[in-house]
Amino acid sequence: MTLSPKYLLPGTMMMVALCAAVWAATPEPSQAAQQGAPHQAARKTAASATHAEQDGERIFDQNCSRCHATPEGFPPSISGTIVRHMRVRASLSEKQEKELLRYLNP
Amino acid sequence: MLRPLLSRLILLVAVGFCGWFHAAAQDTPLLSGGLAFFSSTTGGNTTYFTIAEPLAAVPIGPHFLVESRAALLETFSPSGSPQAGYDHSHFVGLTYLQGDYLLTSHLTVVGGSYLVPFGTYNERLSPVWIGNFQDGPLIAGLGVMSSGTGVGGELRGSAVSRPHYTIDYAAWFSARSGNQQFNAERSSGGRAEVYLPVQGLEVGASYGRLLEGTQENFYGTHLWWEPIGTGFRLRSEFARGQHGDGYWVEADYRMAAFGGADSFVGRFEPLFRMQQTFRLNQTGSDSLPAVDTQRADFGLDYNLPHNVRILTSYSRQFSSTRNENIWETGIVYRYLLPTWKGK
Question: Is the ipTM beyond the 0.95 threshold?
């Protein structure tokens, strides 16, 4: 099986098209919030209770998952070490480090 | 070769005991890393690799962290004639061994032997349990000063952290070191990047200068786009030195939209990577191909439960010396555990 250089340009164009499709399919943040907000009063109470946890989850998704898959479970005794390692590797601020630790150790 | 490595590991364990006496309940030293078995077939010849990459992280007090990664590689490759069977060789070495001091909320001081923060591949994607392809990009050696590690100091952190954008930075200086385990060139440089979390977009620029021999400048840029919650990732990087330049663009899609990330289909991850390198002269001694090269990689990974991944890929590489097919398959296990039972 061989691949000629003439297929490289179409391959790259396919990748660009794939990116455009994902861009189009990605919901706008406000639109996503509207879709999932039928009971705003109830959500407000729940949101205040889980606000810190959501912040930590967001930090995890945006920083840790940017490079690697989520490891399948680890003991809470090393969560602080993991977060400190991630603070250095992902250049997290101290505030982000604390929120991430709270998320991993609710 | 094994003896100095063992002595350093013993030192790390001793540091770990010191850390344990000062550790909080969640700060038990950890042992992580990856174990892999890879095969690569080019021109009918298959080479096998077994790789162990252990990583240790030891927190000491509230502000200090000692971390290290090593690589143990055994290679089985065909010897010249079909009757002679396989030759094997091995390599054992420390990838890095650094101490991190969290000085302020936005500044961390790193000392020791560290990964050169040029571009994204060297620091973020080079661990065997993270990379989507077995092979690194063709330009992986550009800008990382030959060995990929520096011996000296580094300042890094988050300069600005807002809900809609963050700006990170890293600046380093490395002395020359001819030590077998801590090989480094005299060099300096830095990297800065802007990340827009809502869009999942990251743009960064790197600079490095080799301060010995040819005194070469290196420039790099990277662009990553990873829309949150879509399973799609686009990563790209461009690097230029005085002896050559090149780029790679990698797209991957975790098919979590089809029944969730843990479903049979959702565990598949198709990949595509396009890369090109251009040689300007033959002065550099890094891993950049000696002639202009272009390569397309098509991969399909499967994420098994319990942190196991199967990596498969087919690559077609074009250059003025030869065109070749590269078939690769492998399996990687990632582990993450405490060094001892926490307090």
Answer: no
